[in-house]
Amino acid sequence: ENIRAQGFGLICDGVYASGVPVLDLETAPDKSREIISSHLYKIALEHPNNAVVLGCAGMTNIWHKLQPDHQITLIDPVAAAAKLIPVLV
Which residues does residue 74 pair with via DSSP β-bridges, in sequence order? Predict the structure, then answer.
C-alpha cells in the first residue's frame, strides 16, 4: 500500500521480504548474503529485466558482494537515498 501511495504502484512489480534479521547482516554477513542471494535468484526468474532496490540500510555493506552473482541490477538503498536528497531539497 505504501508503494502505491508514493506513486510507484505501476512500476513496482513486488515487495519481497528476505527474512534476514537486520542484526544478522552485521553478525552473520555470509549467511545473510546466502539467504538474500537465494531470494534474488527467484526474483530474477520472475522479473528478469528489472532492478532490485535492497530495502534495508543494513544491506549497504553487502550489496557489492551480491551484485557480481546476479544478472539483475541491485540498488544500494543508502546510495539511492543520498542521490535523491538534492531533488527533494
Answer: 52
